Amino acid sequence: MNETIMAAARERAAGHRRRFDLRFEAYFATLPERLDTPPLSRFTPRCLDLLRDLSLRGGKRLRVALLYEAARLVTTDPVPGLAEAALSIELLQTHGLVHDDLIDDSPRRRGGPSTYYAYRQDFPDADRTALGLAVLAGDLAAFLSMRVLLDADVPAELRRAMLEVQLDAAAETVTGQIVDLERDFLPVPDEEFLHTVCEYKSTRYSVLAPLRLGLLAAGEDLARHDARLRRYATLVGIGGQLRDDYLDLFGDDAATGKTTGADLRAGRRSYAISALLAAADASQRAEIESALGDPHSPTETVHRLRDLARHLGVDAKLRAAMHRHADAARTEARTWRPHWREDAVAFFEGLPLANVLPPE
To answer: What does the pLDDT read at residue 111?
Structure first.
C-alpha cells in the first residue's frame, strides 16, 4: 500500500515538474525584453544568463508540486495565480541557492558551477568583483520573485495576501541563514537547535509557503487551517533536511550533483555531523574536529570519517529519524480528510515517504 501511495505522489510531482520547467524556460526567454536594464551593459545579460542556467539546471520542484496540490485540496478547476506563484517560489529558491553557495564557498550546484564560481572563472584576477556580482545576482532573483506575483491576474486583495506570504517567507529564510551560521559555533548543537535552523532556513519557504499560496489562490481561509499546515510542514521539512544531510556524508557525487563531504569541509554542524560528534569518543571527536572546517580536507579523510560514522551507526540513526518524521507527517495528513478533498489528501500522505530514503 505504501509503495502505491508513494508511486502516485512521485508521478504527480514529476508531472508538475515537467509542466513547470517549460513555463520557467519561457519566463527566462522573455525576461530580457520585460526587464528594463541598461542597454550598453555587458554584465547584466551575463547575470541573467547565470540565473537562468542555475534555475533551469535541475531541482525536484517539490515546492511547485506542493503549491499545485494544495490548491487541488480545494478544487480541481484551474486556479488563477498559481503559475505566477510557482515562478515566485522557484525564483526565491534560486536566490537562496546563489547566496548559499556564496556563504559556503561551494564550487558546484546541480551538477554545474555555482554562480559564484562561474563569476570567479569570469574574473580570475578580480575576486571582489566576482563576489559582488554573485551577491547582486542573488538579490536580483529575490526581487524578481516578488515582482512576478504582482503580474498575477487575480484580485488585488489576493495579490497582496500572496505577496505577504512570500515576503514573510523570504525574511524568515534570511534569519534562518543567520541562525545556520550561529549553529556552527556550538560544539555539538542539540536537536532543538537543529530543528530551529531547519524550520527557519528551509521549512517555512520550501513547504509552508507553497501550501499557503496554493490554498490562498484556491480561495481557502488560511486562519482556519494554519496550525495543521505548520505541523505538517515542520515534519516534512525536518525529514527532507535529514535526507539532505545524510546524502552529504553518505551519498554519491554523481547522483546528488554536489561534492560529498561539503558540510564537513565547510564546518557545518548538520544533523549528520552533529550525530557523528555526539556518537564519537574523545579521540574520534578530535579527528573529526581536525577535519571539520578544513576546505582542503582530502577525499580520503572524508571517506574515513564516513566509514567511522557507519561504524558508529550514524547512518542508521539518520534513516530511522527520516522515517519517523515521514510517518508522523503521513499521520498528520490523514487528519485533513474531513476538511479537504479526499483524493487530493492522498498526495500529502504519500509525499513524506517519497521524499526520504528507503530503509536498508
So the answer is: 82
Question: Three-state DSSP class for 265?
Answer: helix
In three-state secondary structure terms, 191 is helix
Contact 248, 261 (CB under 8 A): yes
C-alpha gyration radius of the chain: 21
| 249 HSE (CA, 13 A, CB side) | 31
Q: How far apart are the first and last CA of the chain?
A: 19
* pTM recorded for the entire structure: 0.91
- Please report the pLDDT score of residue 253 as a whole number: 65
Contact 251, 260 (CB under 8 A): yes
Q: Residues 8-50: pLDDT tens digits?
A: 788 888 899 999 999 999 999 999 988 988 889 999 999 999 9
- Grid coordinates belonging to 44: 547584466
Query: Per-residue pLDDT for 254 more than 70?
Result: no
Q: What is the DSSP letter of 47?
A: H
Hey, what's the cell of 281? 569518543
Q: Give the chain's mean pLDDT.
A: 92
What would the pLDDT profile of 227-250 be if each residue is shown by its tens digit? 999 999 999 999 999 999 999 999
Q: Are 242 and 280 in contact (CB under 8 A)?
A: no
Query: What is the helix, strand, coil percentage profile of the chain, to 5?
Result: 75, 0, 25
- Give the separation between CA 198 and CA 175, rounded to whole angstroms: 11
Query: Cα–Cα distance between 279 and 287 in angstroms, integer?
Result: 13
The number of beta carbons lying within 10 Å of the beta carbon of residue 175 is: 12
Helix H or strand E segment including 112 = strand 112-113
CA 40, 41, 42, 48 torsion-angle sign: negative
Whose CA is closest to 163, among 147, 142, 139, 140? 147
Q: Which residue has the cell 520542484?
A: 61
Q: Minimal CA–CA distance to 269: which of 169, 165, 162, 181?
A: 181
From residue 346, how far is each of 74, 114, 141, 211, 296 by CA, in Å?
13, 36, 33, 15, 46
Once rounded to an integer, what is the mean pLDDT over residues 192-214?
Answer: 95
2-354, what's its fold? Answer: Farnesyl Diphosphate Synthase (1.10.600)
